Amino acid sequence: METGSLKQSCTFRVGPLVNLSKLLIKLGCEPDAIIGRAGFSQEDFKDTERRLPYVPCSRLLADCVTATNCDQFGLLLGQMAGPSYLGVAGFLASTAATVGEALQALADNLDLHDEGGTVALQVEDDYCRLSFSIHQPGVSAIAQIHDLSVVIMCEIMRALCGGEWNASQVHLVRKKPRHLAPHIRYFRTAVLFDAEFCGIVFPSHNLELKPPSADKLLHHHLEQEANRLHQVQHQQIMEMLPAILHRCLLLDQCTVRDIAAELGIHERTLHRRLKSAGTTFRRELDSVRESLSIQLLEVSGLPIYDIAMSLGYADSSGFVRAFHRWTGFTPASWRKQHKRK
Question: Domains (ranges, CATH) in the chain?
Answer without folding.
Answer: 11-217 (3.90.1520), 220-338 (1.10.10.60)
